[in-house]
Design a protein that fits this description.
This protein is an alpha+beta fold. The protein has 20 helices and 32 strands. It starts with 28 loop residues before the first strand and ends with a strand.
Length: 816
Amino acid sequence: MRKLCLYFFGILPTILLQAQDTDSNHALNIWFDTPNNLDGRASWYIPATDRSWENSSLPIGNGSLGANIMGSISAERITLNEKTLWRGGPNTSKGAEYYWNINKKSAHWLPQIRQAFIDDDFQKAEKLTSQNFNGIADYEENRETPFRFGSYTTLGEIYIETGLSEIGMTDYKRILSLDSAMVTVNFHKDGVHYHRTYFASYPDSVIVLKFSADSPGMQNLIFSYGANPEANGYIRPDGKNSLLYTGRLKNNHMAFALRIHALHKGGTLKATDNGKLMVDNADEVIFLITADTDYKLNFDPDFTNPLTYVGPNPEETTHSIMQLALTHDYDDLYCRHKLDYTSLFNRVKLNLNPNVPHHEMNNLPTYRRLERYREKNQDFGLEEIYYQYGRYLLIACSRPGNLPANLQGMWANGVDGSWHVDYHNNINIQMNYWPACSTNLTECNWPLIDFIRTLVKPGKRTAQSYFNARGWTASISSNIFGFTSPLTDHNMSWNFNPMAGPWLATHIWEYYDYTRNKDFLKNIGYELIKSSANFVIDYLWHRPDGTYTAAPSTSPEHGPVDEGATFVHAVAREILLDAIDASRTLNVDHKIRKQWQYVLKHLAPYRIGRYGQLMEWSRDIDDPKDQHRHVNHLFGLHPGHSLSPITTPELAKAARVVLEHRGDKATGWSMGWKLNQWARLQDGNRAYTLFCNLLKNGTLDNLWDTHPPFQIDGNLAGTAGITEMLLQSHMGFIHLLPALPHVWSEGSISGLCAKGNFEVDIIWTNGELKEAIIHSNSGIPCKIRYGNQTLSFKTRKGKSYTVQLENNKLTYFLKK
């Protein structure tokens, strides 16, 4: 799948400011002072044992290609990923008919299940649901041949033997600069300073490695490639200085190619017949790496064609990519990469307590700072790094022209990882995109939007088969081949989630609400939202008492089959509200809109239980001692907007009881969700407690989130949660500093986005708003809230407005 650069670069700057990129004392760096070993090498079938990879590697990526830099001395080891390299799909050995035969015909069971609820026979309802609303495809490879769901899989590993040892090595530093998206490795050995750089370029679709030293002739290297053992392929020379690997996955015959081209100054370099690059006595060596598969994103798959997701020949696409990359020297490649990356990353700046000295902390390796933080030592600089690291990771793993971030973003190790490193639709993929719009990375949303579009046609089959419903939906897990069905397991607590599709569809309106791009809404977004809302009203049960309820339903990964799980109703509210707003915006579908409004009005309401809690199920069966990681029934609080301390204070109070019961500790991603929920409750101090716990207990030494194992969703939820503490806009107004904790008494943030296509800069001192700058990009009216005050004013497109407190009154003026 070819990933084209979407940017045009004019005149390149002639001066490359690389000094700050390689300085470990620079503020936005993640760094280590010791090298990794090679113990995890080729952990193909047991990637969980590769602790160095998970805990102390440094990730780079360009949305298509990902790499983890180990920074070893005797032999650099780099794990590789290509985002579209997946097993499974319709091209497995039994073909397309077998692959798409994954839905049970279950809709005719719904009347019996619903009658069981009327009869108060919940046991019968659960049994009927369990027996009939699972799927036909298995989630485990050892229970199905061929394995059609598949898994994300490794591109392999590269090794660069250096001929050096760690004996006598000093001054080691392995640094990821968030400012430049570059990793550097530096050390001294026998009086020589060795320097390596690594970056993944989106404009040129290559990973670039550079090995150099301050003395000539010191590069004596052997470059080799370790291929995925679940592929058939071979590596060969492709010219004097190049290697080409071509292979096919055994499971589905997906073709992929890896190209390596080396450039050197001084010494000699040759490609050997056994697939290695040999470098002798060179002053400097640059390796360019690119890869591709024959995967084709398809919004309209042919269910009879096993090759419906097969596209261009990756041997040809990688050849074109490499030839274009070779028209640039190293400095040009780096500059093009940095200009592209910083055009996104530099949009948002965060400063927390800037007058509190923390420069000495920058002298400590990141894992040491994390150790001190766990010992309750304040480190506002580390908190800033963590925030921006989430934005870095999203930029690195989600760029236009490719697939969205998966459970590990794109950095997976081994043939198959936990949960197949898939697209989990019951919160995880959605969580990955919580910070995209609010932290000014709307471009990074496009892979999610395109992915949702791939689910619509298969999802219509799933909706019809299970619910006799119009529209489309998806279930708990998806792959890159349009998989929308439940799996074979009879455990409905996790395997029954028909609202996964509507939850995904809410992201379509979210994107529009931030950008106000009406052409997008008209040409792409509206049909996705409309068909999802139609699925919802067909799926809901119109009870004899006139209410609509979700029967059957579950609270994902938690609890029994129910006649109206709160989570499902909350998602239904959200997508119906989105559909109503979308149809009004476009002035279309007036009759259908009235139907949506009617169902919304008669949807079963939120209810408060005997402990004062927001009930999770239709029955008051919540356990106050239950500290389950999923807090599904608070969807309306976050990421939805049907619960709020401002509009529904009693329900918000009940949501708070739930969070008190669930506690402040959990898996990494769960603490990230709770952080966002406490921020929505406008409790900055409790939100900060969750953030601290996330850093202390849910974060690895390289700042990756851990479930365990590593999952990227916690990182991205953490970044979203900090943003929610400082700015919210989901209730129809821009809420400044809604959940500012006492400990962040002074600070600033610039470049955040608010719904309505506004950009917002905020400065605060002594825990209070000093000034906010509102940039209006669409020229619509603006409503501001700070504390209990509100302020409304008209805006003009392209103009900026200053909001201040004067004599404790909120005022504004046009910024000149």
